[in-house]
Amino acid sequence: MNFTMDLPGLKGVKVTKMEEREDFIALHVEMPRTPHRCPSCGERTERIHDDRIQKIQHLKLFERWVYLFYRKRRYACRCGKRFAEKACFVERYQRQTVEWNQAFRLRLIQGKNFTDTANQFQTSVTTAMRRFGQLAAPLVKKVDHLPPRIAIDDYKGDTKAGKYQVIIADADTRKPLD
Ligand SMILES: [Zn+2]
């Protein structure tokens, strides 16, 4: 089996094998081999240095979790530089796809609570809280006038500030205030 899949978030990705494992679907994927520009000298190269398999969590397909087994290549340049290939579906140092992260961020904001969201995305509550903190930080600024309706919720967290947190949001726009 060898086909290019146009699943959301996996455009242009070559699927070399698809297996049903006990509790998830394993998609073996790679990027097409293309000339890459060396980040060091600017020359183009198509020479592959090596590759390794990286397991990356993706979204659900037919109600089953999909894990990508991504054969990630490193290219080698004549100047001696070795560098990772470009891949649109995963960012550096991430264990989940770009698409997973987008869906997760949306659910963090709209979801019931962190435990529920973490369960839905098969990740830890700590990760959910940390990501929410990263999301919320640029949105929260000094509020001079309170909106007509505010929503207050408390939750058990674990931040530098302590074990329990309170969030105050605009009840109509759902934007966090503090
Ligand atoms: Zn080079």
Describe this protein's structure:
The strands form three sheets. Strands 1, 2, 3, 6, 7 and 8 form a six-stranded mixed sheet that branches. Strands 4-5 form a two-stranded antiparallel sheet. It has helices at residues 98-110, 114-120, 125-136, and strands spanning 3-5, 13-20, 24-30, 36-37, 44-45, 48-61, 64-76, 82-84, 150-159, 162-170. With 178 residues, the chain is α+β, with helices and mostly antiparallel strands. It contains three helices and ten strands. 17% of the residues are buried. It has a domain at 1-95. The model has no long low-confidence stretch (mean pLDDT 88). Strand 1 (3-5) and strand 2 (13-20) form a beta hairpin. Bound molecules: zinc ion.
